[in-house]
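Write out this protein's structure.
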Amino acid sequence: MLFNSYPFIFLFLPIMLIGYFYLTHKRLILGSKVWLVGGSLFFYGYWDIAYIPLLLFSIFVNFSLGSALADAPRDDKLSSVLKTFSAKTLLIFGIVFNVALLAYFKYTDFLLDNFNGIFGSDVPLPHIVLPLGISFFTFTQIAFLVDAYKGEAREYNLTHYMLFVTYFPHLLAGPILHHKEMMPQFASRWNWAVRWRNVAVGLFLFSIGLFKKVVIADTFAQWADAGFDTATTLNFFEAWATSLSYTLQLYFDFSGYTDMAIGMSLMFNIRLPINFNSPYKARDIQDFWRRWHITLSRFLRDYIYIPLGGNRAGRGRNYLNLFSVFLIGGLWHGASWMFVIWGALHGAAIVIHRIWRDMGLKMWGWLGWLITFNFVNIAWVFFRAKDFEMAEKVLGGMVGAGGVVLPDKLAGKLAFLSGYGVEFAEQFLSGLGGMSGRHLVLIASIVMFAVVSRNSQEWSKKATPKLRYQLLTALFLAFGILSLSKISQFLYFQF
């Protein structure tokens, strides 16, 4: 079941809201939590019921380990049944368990394929189907184990823990949550009653997210898919239109999902952490990662970068730690050398930025933005491309390897450019399936809009149940619902 589907919008979400607040109104608080857990499992199983046992198995193992870690006294020895194990041993076991589970489903084919390539063997690939949300609920539970080990999280109630992991607004594609920021909200009496302002603001955010996904992201998807998957060659403008289309598609797709998740959760009076803060406004690569997929950046910082030593072991080690974190972040996104390259590019960029900063050098703001945006756009090519050949096709076109083609309307005024290899054609963007010059203007306009406008979270702070926001909500919802003729998955479902 998708957020951008009729069953979810008109059946599942209203039923979950009505049932939850009916139970809280009757002071059946445990029943309301069981209702959310049951609904979340139904939501997950709607995709493929066969993977519910996997999700439950992961939950039970991590809950048991987390409960044991929370019982550990200060001498790092368990006082419970598991007296023979130290807390650190249990933590390591828990992390290995989660990573191994993720690796089996996500990286088995990748590792076997590379093994066959290196050693010339012919081990058959099992082609394991990746369970939806496994990358997100795995990282969420690793964070819980580490927090339990540090004494910052404690959970003895299985139902509460299941709610924390399975809560359907974040289950499939985040945001990545901390136990300590969620459970106090579910326990708060203030949240047990309908808060109409939260419903209004939540619906406003949900409608914006739906509009982002089905109207903006899915429109750009057509041109990105045509350029990456269909076209055999790309001229200069086709290649740039392809890369920018994907850059915008990815942002509006994922931020749209996050807006919908945050919005519908707010209807339940539960505030999920912000995951995007206008990342394409960033003036350097570090600023970009403070704005893009914020909860993933937080996880990588708190649970990988700092444990590796952070910046505490000298500059050289700091640079290595930074690069390693982004390499891991790239591989987390998918089992492909393309993601490794993408992560390595961002790792190298963040190291260069850190060296630049350590040298006390500065840069004009507009130039920093220009460099950052174009670097991010170019790096997304590897993120989207299925192989080196596809990436080479797009990047080659972006530097003019596929030639430069202009509209034939300009042939009279710019005829002299023919001597420099420039061609003129009526359909100068023919490789992108119906794209025209006005669509290039649309791309440029959306880029500028993303750079200068307020983001959805900033707008939501001003949203109230007043008439104008109700009208805006109705308008976004209408456009979104009328565009649901073709249901498309969110991009981050594949990660």
